Structure formats: C-alpha cells, structure tokens
Amino acid sequence: MKREVPLFITFFVGTLLIASVFIPPAESWGENFSVYFDIIAVFAFFLGGGNLLRIHLQKVASKRPDWGYSIVTLVAFLVMLAAGLFKLGNPGGISGNLTTAQSWFQILFQNIMSPLGSTMYALLAFFVASASYRAFRAKNRDATILLVAAFIILLGRTPFGTMLTSWIPPQYDLLQVPNLAIWIMSGPNLAGQRAIMIGIGLGIVSMSLRILLGIERTYLGDDR
Amino acid sequence: MLFRVAIAFACLFIIAGVAGQPAGDTALAVQQTIAPVTSLIATNHEYDNGTGIDLIWVPSIDDRLAPSRVTGYEVWRSVVGGSGSRIAELPAGANKFTDEQCSRESTYVYSVVAISVAGNAVSISTAPIQPAREWINLHRLNLLAIAFLVSAAVIYFIQSARSGKKLFVRKIAGLDAVDDAIGRATEMGRPILFIPGIQDMDDVQTIAAITILGRVSRVVADYDTKIKMPVSRSLVMTAARETIKASYMAAGRPDAYNDDMVSYVTDEQFGYVAAVDGIMVREKPATCFYLGAFFAESLILAETGNSVGAIQIAGTAMPAQIPFFVAACDFALIGEELFAASAYLSNEPKQLGSLKGQDVGKAVALVVIVVGTMAATIGSAWDVTFMNQLWSALKVVFQTN
C-alpha cells in the first residue's frame, strides 16, 4: 500500500491535469493544484528550517571543523526569522505590512541580504571569463567553430565591429560584422535552440508517461 | 434693426441653454466633436468556461487622422436591468477587446466610448449577449493529436520492450561516466556532491534529478562512498532522503544511511550558491553532479567545482544554461538527455522502450521541419499556391499556442 497509494494519486492527478488542458471548465484546476502544492511546501518549510537548526547546532555543540560558520548561519537565521515573524521595528506593529521600509526585516534584507546576493551574482563575470577561456581554445574543429562564432558575435556587439566593416557596400551588408552576428544568433543559434526545445518537449512527454504509468518509481524511493 | 437684435438675443439664449444643460446632455453636445466607433459587435469568446465575451469595432474615423484626434477608448459594460461600469481603457487605434470577467448567469450590453481632448463619443450599444460554456477546446485538438501520437509511440515501444524485443539506444557519454565518477570519489576518499537544481518538486527537471539520484545513490551505497546533497527546497530534501534511503536499503546497507546526507540550506538563490561554493571549497568533492533546473548560478557552481578539481557531470533543460555547463563541466546532458538519464541508467527494457518512443516524435518533427522549410521556400520564391497552402496547413497543425 505504501507504494500503490502514491502511484494511484500520481496517475489520477496527472491524468486529471492533462485533461484540464483540453476541457475549458477544468482549466483552473492546474492553478488550484499549484495552490495546494504551495500550502504543502509551506508546511515542509518547517522541516527545512528544523533541519538547518539541527545540523548547525550539532556542528557547534561538537565543535566540528569550521563550526564558526555555523554560528554565523544560526544567528542570521534566527535574527531574520524573529524580524519577519514578530515584525520587529514595524510602525504598524504585528498587523502592519512587512515590506514597510522601517521594519527590521526590510532593513536587513535591503542592507545585508540584497548586497550579498548581488556580490555572488557579480562573481559570474569572472567565471564567464575563465570558462570562456577554456571553451574557446581551438583544440579541435568544433571548438574552432565555437571560437570563430563567439569572436564574430563579441565583435559585432561593439562599435569597433561596426567601424571595421562599415566600408562593405550595402548589397553585401550581410558580411558586415554586426549583421553577421545577428545572422548567427537568429539563424544557426536559434535553430539549435529550437532543436533542443523539441527534444526537451518529447523528453518531458516520455518521462511523464513513465511516471504516470508507474514504470518510473525512483522518485518514490523505489527502483524495483 | 429690431429683427437683428431679436436674432442676437435668440442666439444668446440658445448658447446659454446649452451651457446650462446637465452633464449627459453636454456629452451629447460634444459628441459631435469626434465620431464614435461603429459596427460594435459582441460575440461569445470561443472555447472557454463561459467567462469571456469578444468585442470588435471599427475605430472612430477621427482615429485614422494623422495625428489621431482620439486619445483612447473606454469599454463600458452593463448587466441587463442593472447599472453600467467602465471595464477597460484602451489606447488609440484599438479595435477589439475580450472581457474575461463575465458570469454565465448574466446578460450583458456593451458600449465603447471614444475619448478625445475635445470631448467623448459614445457608440451604439451592442445587442444583449450571454456568455456560453464549451466542454472541449477545439483550438487545442492539434495539440491533443500530437500528444496522442507521441504517447502511443512511447507506449508501443514500452510494450515491445516488455515482450523481449531488442532496442538500440545510442550511447550517452555523460551517463556512461557516472560509475567512473563515483569510483573516482571512492578511490580518493572524497565525497560526491549532488545538486538537484534550485526548483521545487513541481518542476519536472527536479523530478528527473531525483530519479537519477536514485540510480546514483544505489552505486554510492554499493561503493560505500560519501554523498552530500545540499538542497534549496524543503520538499526536495524530503523526497531526496526517501530516495537515498531506499537505495541504501536496496543495496542491503540501511545502517550506512544518514539523514544528514541531504541538508536544507535556503530558498534564496545566491545564498544557496554561496553555501554550496563553501562546501566545495572546504570539502573538495571528487565528483559533482548538477542535474535539474538551474539559472544564473549554473556557471558559478560549475566553475567553483572545476577549481577544486572535481569531475563534473551536469544536465539541465534550461536552454540558456546549457552552454555554461558544456563549457565548464566534463560531461553535459543536453535537454532531453536529462529526462532520459534515469531510464538509460536503469537499463530496464521497458524504460528504454520509452526512449525509443521519443524517436518517433523526433522523426515527425524532422519530416515536418524539412517539408515545411521546402514548402515555405518554394512557395515564396515561385509563388506556388499549393506550397503556400501546405505551409499554412503545417503552421496551423503544429502551432501549439
């Protein structure tokens, strides 16, 4: 029964939601089920928060390596939780709006959380450079094509690229670097992306059928 | 002379009379400043739950001047026997609107007001109309047919595989490397890091990642390797624990399972990235799996993994992130390979059969693309009617939105 009931629920709800796409009176069912999912996810948050507390408290208590980071995590978690839950510093009190600028939650979010997130995001610029360096090395034919295409696109997006080939007469304007870059993006690149999207669509259909028919059960902790 | 004075007084009285009229009458007076919209027709919105009515009209003739004298339109609705209210404001040039806030039990009358600086012009009201409900969305019949075709092919090949028919499935290098990657971690005595993306269990990519986790954790349990799985969603944590626990039980080593193998970090995207990067730098995993839905964090994770010397296997169905994984990881599962991975790793005939079913869908897509491209090219270059019709027909059948 432990396996049969989830499988039945999966089949029943999955079939219902597929049918709802084609039956206008049932079109809102998908949204309704999303709301049910959100409600379950909210309850699951207690599990997540509890897990976070337990793991880091254990780490601090047993003074495992790097336990200092766990203290930072615990303090940040509890302070943010208290600020949000009790609406500390909120002019409207406990019934006030959490997004008010004076609330501790907003102050912490805007002045600590948000800059930290932006800092992590900014690292992407450096990682793009290092990954590009490795990817664009002309080791073989494929990598060379990638290198040439990337060079044209990068050049085409700069004023220098425009200046470099502006002398080409209008009847051959496709050979101007900016136009060449546009052609690569809207031609070969878009075609490749669409091919991947078609494959993804078919892959989702195939996997959904495996799950609905109970052939794929690994997600239930059952690989028989 | 007396006659002229009488005429002048009469004119003054007429002007004064108009100025003193109530608001409705004033509007009537200024209606003459611009022309109202004409031919306003209300029809039932097709294939909905009886909540929509389509309106279409010919814009005011003053809207066709350059510059237009009409600044916009207002759509007014009234329930028969009730008062009216404004339900939409539209820009100049608009000539249609769909009211999606109707009730099947009510009958409505609509009018459109053309707005201008000089004044407004009200159209003639529509005939009373009551929205109707349809039970089948015929606009999506093509989608139903395509889904049915692909599903039938998948089920056919699953049944073929069940009956013992040998099926060829092409090699996927990224998945063939899974055992080696886990073996490497075992030999080095370092953990395996499994990242299931940053979406919740309602995302099909996360489900795909959890199904792959089941296969990976089975090998991990057999090899007695350490696996670490920080997650950004509580439900994923619960599902992943159940999956790993089942794998350890299937491997006959339930005692080796530990709930701490899967830990919740945060729902916050970059907070999660910071935590995972920290784990990588401190614990230096030998193997990293990034499977699921990723966004901007894909490259940050993959480059950090690369910097600690981990062998990396990634897979996602997010087209924008695939290039980053291809550039930074040792193996990348591209799009559909993520969804095929679990079936491929299971090596069960019935699961592999479902992969063959996908190929039928690809074959249909291939034929339609080739025929459609040829029809569009020949049709437009030589103006061949049949080719243009074929091109239009293909667009109608395969356009799904």
Largest interface, chains and sizes: A-B, 65 and 85 residues
- Which class of secondary structure composition applies to the elements of chain B? alpha/beta
Looking at the structure, what is the overall shape of chain A? extended
Number of contiguous helices of chain B: 13
The main pleated sheet of chain A reads as:
none
**The CATH topology of the domain at 178-329 in chain B is what?**
Rossmann fold
DSSP helix fraction of chain A: over 70%
Number of strands of chain A: 0
Poorly predicted residue ranges of chain A: none
The total count of helices of chain A amounts to: 7
Helices and strands, with pairings:
The complex is a heterodimer of chains A (224) and B (401).
Chain A lengths: L3 H19 L6 H33 L5 H19 L18 H32 L5 H16 L2 H6 L12 H36 L12
Helix pairs in contact in A: 2-3, 5-7
Chain B lengths: L1 H18 L3 H8 L7 E7 L8 E6 L11 E10 L4 E8 L4 E4 L8 E9 L3 E3 L18 H22 L10 H4 L1 H11 L3 E6 L6 H20 L3 E5 L2 H17 L11 E3 L4 H15 L3 E7 L3 H11 L3 E6 L5 H7 L2 E4 L1 H11 L2 H34 L2 H14 L3
Parallel strand pairs in B: 8-9, 8-11, 9-10, 11-12, 12-13
Antiparallel strand pairs in B: 1-2, 2-5, 3-4, 3-6, 6-7
